[in-house]
Amino acid sequence: METTPREEINQRINTFQKELTANDLEGAFILQNADLFYFSGTIQSSVLFIPANGEPILMVQKNLERAQLESSLNNVIQVKNKNHIAQILRDFEVNQLSTAGLEMDVLPANLYIGFRKKFPQCRWVDVSGVIRKLRMIKTDYEIEQIQKATAILHTGLTEIRHIIREGMTELEIDGYLAMIARREGHMGTLRMRGWNQEMTYAHVLAGDNGSVISYLNSAHGGSGNTPAMAQGAGFRRIKTNEPIGIDYGVAVNGYIGDQFRTYVIGELSDTLKKAHECSRNIHLLLAREAKPGVSCSHLYDLAVEMAAENGYSDFFMGYGEGQVQFIGHGIGLEIDEYPIISPRFYGILEEGMVFALEPMFVLPKEGVVGLEDDYLVTSKGLTRLTLTEQVVIHI
Amino acid sequence: METTPREEINQRINTFQKELTANDLEGAFILQNADLFYFSGTIQSSVLFIPANGEPILMVQKNLERAQLESSLNNVIQVKNKNHIAQILRDFEVNQLSTAGLEMDVLPANLYIGFRKKFPQCRWVDVSGVIRKLRMIKTDYEIEQIQKATAILHTGLTEIRHIIREGMTELEIDGYLAMIARREGHMGTLRMRGWNQEMTYAHVLAGDNGSVISYLNSAHGGSGNTPAMAQGAGFRRIKTNEPIGIDYGVAVNGYIGDQFRTYVIGELSDTLKKAHECSRNIHLLLAREAKPGVSCSHLYDLAVEMAAENGYSDFFMGYGEGQVQFIGHGIGLEIDEYPIISPRFYGILEEGMVFALEPMFVLPKEGVVGLEDDYLVTSKGLTRLTLTEQVVIHI
Asked: CB B125: neighbour CB atoms within 10 A?
């Protein structure tokens, strides 16, 4: 099984330590699975302390043996009981913290209160923004992992073309996509950082289900088959001449690829064809314009303008209450990473960013069409990481 | 699409309001998907305020229309901006809270801090324990939903028998189980309340992979195919004469069924056969002994004693560091509900509880065997909700 290379972990820790120092923090506690994996190479139940200077300490609650195999950190220590973490920190002479960081966007209140009680003298600072910015810039190793994920996406999106037929339910197609993903090595979850945000392996949204608005922070939501989940595929059956939107996610060694394609048995209406063509043109435009130094909000504006020129302003990235204010999002260990290609994201493109670009059109009662592909920002511009050449896929 | 009946919601709210009053709380804010669904019938992005007296207020951030369709609550109100929640509460004259509840086991620190800032005079109390105890007792409606889930489990566990063959990878089998689950209506996630706990649709653990310890709070863990997920199926290929442990979860209308069966191509070793027989005997013993009033820790002790009598103490519910101290767990909207059949859970069986009983044996390098079935506690004792009669399933 592939573990994160030692030099990767060292580099990540070093960069984070510089940020800790710049922010006058003596260290930070890392607990959440995605962050823990990023900085240690393992998600075995642990508390990771990263001091601003010196070696990190991985305190493992369960399972020590695997944590030692998976993590290249030098200090991997078994936690024996509730009070043992304080003891370990005393042993490393880091118990007198006065300012330290926590992942306060995801850490549950009770754990936060626990830290406050254990270190009553300490001022706690939210380092989730710092971590998300760090994780935003991908190394070659990370890009390779995302490419493995996009290769599986391509396999699935190609294979499913031969499976879809009239009368099948969205859920059947979703099931096949799940089967292919797992068979090819999808790790089985698509992590999202956002509170209460959850994800199935795929969204399969046929016809009007593509225009059902949901709680999800996404242009398309879908009915699902219960209000308890309220997104994605349901028991609706596939018909001819309607868009079948498939949003597919796969994670390999933690890293996510994310792609959307529109399928159709027969033909799309002229309106949908034109909207789809507009999505394609936004991709082509942004692929020309996007390069290091260009602001995310500028890219968003360009996309919105093109949608408006084509008369689709009201349906771009959803309609009505369902309209979302972004056309792309970073991908990595989580599906909702930075950068966000949005007017509200104050950042410029930098080399090493990887994002999913998804200019989508949602037409009430008709459905969702568009293209989503993953791009790497290089010094020269965008490199596409997704492999599927077809745009509208005819069954 | 099926929505939660109004009388269900009303009953849940009423019981919770009694608890709020008994705990001297003026109300509680509910935000987490499973709790939100339980008390409102929707997971559309919302903040639910339940006062100790009077009508709850569902404040919807996204999407109002679906929230109104899905929830039978009377006050379903659109939140327009960040400050609007305070305004809505003022309109309902509940802004001067002095003591109120939050789900502090799951609510992120930043949201908790946000509540403290918005209501500086308020003392906040963790109501997660109260909610979990309430949700522990299932109504007839909830039991019906769990039965729909166990029907799908039975379909999957029966169908997979004809699919498994020598040389397949665990991941292929896992993929088929995902496909069947979704086809039959699994909602696509298995919610867990525990911090950092995550779940794939199934665990498929063949031979020695069944004895790989993981971070997961479970007797069996499995390697997975990456340290980034570190549980469940991997690329290991199925061999003859080894146990193929399948732990399968499915959720219908939010409610989870959870079952484990051991498959084998050929024959299990005598040790594994005997361990499996012991798991079956623990089921039979507990089905005789368990009834309202019996303590969970007593049931745990009975199981441990029987495992010891058979010489399997060291391998019961894992081995070494992987050994867990429970033999069953409540199921409902989450897979880690109360009651926990554990020496550390101070509670007695009550009518309406539903739990998965999973006396498992994990033999180092050999694998995992056992039986997991779901039971309802009735006035007369246990009623099995899972449908599969076969114990060891020969391919």
From this structure: 17
